[in-house]
Structure formats: C-alpha cells, structure tokens
Amino acid sequence: MTDKKDKSIAADTSAMWGGRFEAGPSAVMEAINASISFDKALYAQDIAGSTAHARMLAKQGIISDVDADAICTGLQKIAAEIEDCGFEFKAALEDIHMNIEARLRDLIGDAAGRLHTARSRNDQVATDLKLWVRDALDGLDRDLQALQAALITQAETHADSVMPGFTHLQTAQPVTLGHHLMAYAEMLGRDRSRAADARVRMNESPLGAVALAGTSFPIDRHATAEALGFDRPAANSLDAVSDRDFAMEYMSVAAILAVHLSRLAEEIVLWCSSQFGYMRLSDAYSTGSSIMPQKRNPDAAELIRAKAGRVIGAMNSLMIVMKGLPMTYGKDMQDDKEPVFEVANTLALSLAAMTGMIESATFDKARMRADAGKGFSTATDLADWLVRALGMPFRDAHHVTGALVKLAETNGCGLEDLSLAEMQGVDQDITDDVFAVLGVDNSVASRVSYGGTAPEGVRARIRDAKARWL
Ligand code: ARG
Description:
By secondary structure, the chain is mainly alpha-helical. 63% of the residues lie in helices and 4% in strands.
C-alpha cells in the first residue's frame, strides 16, 4: 500500500471515470471496490452484450459503421486473448467491463470510447449476469436430465426388487426399489420445471435502461434484446438496473434441488452402512480409511449433503444483500456474483458425483427383501384383507390386525408364521386365504392404484417418465 501504487492506480482508472478526480483510490479502496477477480467469468457475456450494443448503435446512426466494425473485431480479438490466457486482468480497472473497454482502446484507439454511448455499467452488468444465469439454467437442465436418466435406468432394473418402505425411518410397508428411486426422478422433474419457469420469467433484456432512466439517444432496445436471445426489453428502466430477482430465483431453484440431492445423499449414507447393507457404491465412488482397512466410505454422498448448506447459504446471502436496497443500482449488488458462481459450481459437481454414484451402484436384493418382511410390514395388507374378504369396517380390521401383531410379537414370529388356528382365536371368520396377502411380493403386487408401488405400475410410470424427461 505505497504511494507509488496509488499513483499507478490513478493513472489506470482516470481513463474511465477519473475526469473529476485529482488522486486515485487507496490500495484498500481498490481492494474492496474491484470485482475483476470473480467477474472475469462474465467476459463472454460482456462481449456478446457489447457486440449487440455496438451493432445497434451503428444501425440507429448513433455511431458509424466503421467504428462499429472496429469495435466488434476488437472485441473478438479480446475474447480470443482471454480464452488463450493472454489477457492481463487488472484490479486497477475494477471490473470486467472496464478491463475489456481499456483493452479495446489499446487495440482500436478512440473508436473504443464510442462503445459506451447510451449505456452504463448498470445496465451492462445486469445484462451480463442475466445471460450468465440463463446459460447456467440451461446447463442445470442438462445435468438434471443426466441424473434422471441414471435413476430411471436403475429403477427399470429394480422395478420389482422389494425393499422396506419407511415412515419415521421405521419399517412401514414393502415397496420396490424402482418405486423409491423414481420418487427422486419426480423431484428432479419438478426442479427442471422450476428452472424452466425461472428462465421464461427472467428473459427480458435490461440493456438500454442505461444508468437508471433510459437515454436521449434513439436506441433500439428491441433489436439488442433480440440479438441476445431475450424475449423483449424490460419495461421499466429503474427496475431493469436494480432487479436481481433472476439471480435469487436461480438460487432458490438451486436450493430446493440441493435439498433433494441432500436427502438422496442421506439415504445413500444409510444404505451403504453395514446396518442397512442395501447399497454398494463402486470403487470409483468410495473412499477408504487411513486406519481401518475394512472401511468403504460414501464421502461423495456426505459432501453432497454438506454442500446443500452452502447452496442455501448462498441464496440467503444475496437475499440479505438485496432486502435493504432502495432503488435503483447500489454497489452492494456487485456482491451478487460470487454466490451465483458458487451455486453453479457446487451444483455441477454435486450432480456429476450423484449421477456417477447412482449409475455405478449395486444393490443387495436379498438383504432388502429380508428386511422388507420385518417389522410386521404387511399388517396393512392383512387389515385390507379383513375389509375385502370379511366385509369388516376398516377401523375394526385395524383393531383385529393389531391383536394379531401383538400375538406374533409375543410368539416372537412374523404374521405369516401364525397358524390359522391362532388367527381364528382372534377372529373366527379368518380363512386360509389370508396367507396369500402376507408375503412381501403379494403385498407390493397388490398396490395397483395409480402411482402405487406395484411393479407393473412402476414400469408404466417409468415409461411415462422416459417420454417426458429423457
Ligand atoms: N462491477 C460493478 C458490479 O458488478 C459494475 C457496475 C458498476 N456501476 C457503477 N455505477 N459503479 O455491480
């Protein structure tokens, strides 16, 4: 933080906005003000926005075609320099917008100074980040589809693999693994639909709102909106520069998705434990212990569970930044980018890891089947049979079944192990037919209601899911 450094900063920034300043910012001011360390991620969007703006300015006769051509050629060169790592980003130039504009001036001279006509960094940055988030939503949709495909493939294999279904993490009723996995495919389907909704809502162009109030130049906001793939220009210039709903909405979509991934991760952790023993991750997605040679740890699942906290935190951080801001742009909004980037990176990695884990996992069908019958899991089937076969009101059937469960518990056996005589001791009308509903296969096969766990229904829903999502 020397004086010398301060002078060199002043020399750099004065080219952009230093006309009325005598001294440059202090090193601390530069450090808190600069966003280039992270907003360089917006370079492609910034160049696309500037190109559309320059073309529109020329078409409207605001700048010459010659200048517009020089600007666009220069911008292409800058894009190549950045991609080849031959671009020097300078904190003294604060952000990606001024870094690119300064370089453009080096390359093409004074014509570069015409690019910022009828534009402000306020509409520029809103446009750039929106374009970035739009791409992120498209990438998210592809990643979600890949995970759905992995789940659906395993669900097809296990459409009739019986496992215990749980409520309160207590054995409830037998279900199939295919049915259980398809529950997650549904959640991800809603995530995709939320992302698609958000994309439609955000697809309005802020460009041309300028600093906050619009401009006296005869710009064509419809033309720049169209060139950038927006559906229309945003209707209110004040809103356009101060709106960060699109970033908050993206992160809200992401946070709900992260909750889904975390729940699946939690199940993987449980299922991979020796206590459950339902699932085995491939070597590629397991880790060992440095001291306990027997261990296969589900680290990726644990980390996905943890990263949900980071995603939710990132969403919170931007909402808290935004909630106190008066209209219109405030520099606080510069802090919108890091949470957005963190969410995108975290989700891409989490989704790739989850897809890899699911694709390569194997399941212990015998173990799941054995567990499915434990804990009197077919008690509801027995009660339903009493209703269907004996015409009992369900509440009475529930009571009779409870007495039978108690008897089995006292005898230390399963419901299916009670003799007919023992059952008739509880209700004399019970017949031999009851045993047909007490097996786990019969139990799942009987649940044919739409959306239920019967294997034929699960296969039908898988067909629907493939047509809808893959
Ligand atoms: N780097 C700034 C941001 O990300 C760009 C906009 C700055 N606008 C301004 N009037 N200082 O928000």
